[in-house]
Amino acid sequence: MPPGRAAFSAGGSAGPLLPVVGTGEWPTPMSKVGLQRSGHRDHQRFLMHDGSVRFNVSGTGWALPEQRLDNPELAARLGIDADSITERTGIVERRVASPGDSASGLGSVAAKMALERAGVDARDIDLVLLSTYTPDHLLCPTAPVLAHRVGALNAGAFDLNGACSGGVTALFTGAAMLHTGIYRRVLVVTADLTTRFIHPEDAKTALIFGDGATACLLEPVGPQTEKSWSVVGAGMGADGSGAHLFKVPAGGCVLPPSSRMGDPDSDGTIKMNGRAIFRFGVERGASLIGELCAIAGLALNEVDWVIPHQANLRIISALADRVGIPLAKWVINIQHCGNTASSSVPLAWAELMEGGRVSRGENVLLVAFGAGLTWSGIALRQL
Hints:
This protein is α+β, with helices and mostly antiparallel strands. The chain folds into 2 domains: about 5-50 and about 230-380, Thiolase/Chalcone synthase (Peroxisomal Thiolase, Chain A, domain 1, 3-Layer(aba) Sandwich); about 55-220, 3-Layer(aba) Sandwich (Peroxisomal Thiolase, Chain A, domain 1), CATH 3.40.47.10. The protein contains 10 helices and 16 strands. It is globular and about 60 Å long. It starts with 5 loop residues before the first strand and ends with a strand.
């Protein structure tokens, strides 16, 4: 078995994980990842659950901009072949926010949809969590604005920025908040307008990203609850030595906003090392899935669904091949949405639930990775 691949037993159960060995452009810490005495890897910590962390998703919602950017239009702009875009990314079209859209705007549309479907008044919401790396303003946070637009006037609200892994992190944070008993209704929202930060002629980013928002209302499990979810494992990690692989240099306190951001080739647009991000997604995603299965006591053949970050179809396919879970078990919607950052996993999860495709007792893995570098995963069981 080549170095860096997760080792699994012939029976399908997760076996010991080999060290993830990086090459080329990988930061030094990535090449030293290995099992520690504590059972944890460098840069990440996994939590085993007894199933007591349970929640009910009483309503889901989403918002995708009306404007569609298909491959022929994008190919004409970039001077490339339209079919090659599909071959490279698996994406047919992506949604692009209009000038009047915002994170709070798209997020509030998704949130209102979730509340309407749940039959819950916004004033009864206790907490609003917003995952975004494209806030309305550098200062102040966007979650309070979103809560106001929704009418959640009695709720606390704060932002989470986990980049593309933020949706999974926000979901786990919401479930943990609910588990404390302090909060009874937690509204988890994701909203990212990545296209606002893309150089129009940068194929590495223009081909991939789309805009969108999602929302789900989490409530405690009660006697009338028909279906609920149990957290059987969770983990997240970070490795700041890879922060340079995907970032917008300007806009923070290191390089404050200035007129330089008006130039599309300035530090105000996304700079991405696509090759390194690809390796990170496959290698870290594989170790994340292996660890989740191990702590949840799941053999690979007991995993019914995998919902990965919709980064690129090639990454998803390579990840499926790496871990040995058939691609038919992976929920993929990148074809018509593009990479919607922190909204990608929640959107695919909502589609899975809406389609009634999950049965009681089935195990679902939510796996995400993103800039920072960050990664987050949850192993859920449908009850």
